[in-house]
Design a protein that fits this description.
The protein has 248 residues and is an alpha/beta fold. It has 6 helices and 11 strands. Bound molecules: adenosine monophosphate.
């Protein structure tokens, strides 16, 4: 099982836009594994523990510091890790192409990944990767069962739960309710330091990771006005008419 894990600003951090509007300020900000990727990692490890997978390989793409994220995956229980190191800002298509090249090398039976990265919120990489590979895909899953050459997944849709069967190998992206990721224990954090971590570059994988989209400007959203409590529905309706200017 191949698990792509992204290093992102921790979900507890309130991000700020840089004063010159050129991006988000991540200097001295706590970084963590993308929460959806933690869930994917946990699920892959559970598959291995249940004897349904033989090896869990975590892969991260980005700066050298992504090694920390990979060590977290190894401490959780992944067997080995791959870093594709680049200083280039990676957008979903570049990530999908790099992962496609890793898949060609590693030949996993399953790619299990987060449904979205909480920094760019793109929700594009798994779908692009499946398309590039020509593999079946199941997105936003909340349950996964592996059978012989097939997987059965449940996914939350507007009308309720959808159950799908897909052939393997496949790309599967996970949603929040799939599981609760474990914390890495201290002994496992120590053990993770000795697990193999391979380094590659986009050039070695034959991929040009240059961004295709250019951001023009970043802005803070407008400040929200304070709310007010009303005593009754009648008052609420009255204020909606008079103050919010909603036509009758
Ligand atoms: P996105 O399409 O950017 O919302 O990301 C969806 C998923 O793709 C994430 O949850 C990760 O599993 C994977 N991914 C995106 N960027 C990276 C990256 N730089 N390194 C590793 N995995 C990534």
């Amino acid at each position: 099982v191949l698990v792509p894990v992204k290093r992102v600003v921790d979900y507890n951090v309130k991000v700020r836009v840089k004063a010159d509007g050129s991006g988000v300020d991540i200097a001295n900000v706590k970084m963590s594994m993308n929460p959806f990727d933690e869930i994917a990692c946990e699920e892959a490890i559970r598959l291995k523990e249940a004897g349904k997978a033989t090896e869990v390989v975590a892969v991260s793409l980005g700066e050298s510091r992504c090694q920390e994220t990979l060590r977290t995956a190894l401490a959780m229980g992944a067997d080995r890790a791959i870093l594709v190191e680049t200083g280039v800002e990676l957008q979903p298509l570049a990530v999908a192409k790099l992962l496609q090249a890793i898949v060609a090398k590693e030949e996993p039976g399953l790619v299990l990944m987060g449904k979205q990265a909480i920094d760019d919120d793109s929700n594009q990489t798994p779908q692009m990767l499946a398309a590039l590979l020509g593999w079946p895909q199941a997105t936003f899953i909340s349950k996964l069962e592996l059978g012989d050459g097939r997987a059965t997944v449940s996914r939350e849709v507007d009308e309720g739960l959808e159950r799908l069967e897909i052939g393997l190998p496949a790309v599967v992206s996970v949603d929040l309710r799939l599981n609760e990721p474990r914390y890495a224990s201290l002994p496992n954090i120590m053990k993770a330091k000795k697990k193999p971590l391979d380094m590659l570059t986009p050039e070695e994988l034959g991929v040009d990771p240059a961004p295709r989209l250019h951001y023009l400007r970043f802005e803070e959203p407008p400040k929200r006005q304070a709310g007010a409590k009303v005593a009754s529905v009648a008052e609420l309706v009255g204020r909606i008419k008079t103050e919010a200017g909603v036509p009758p």
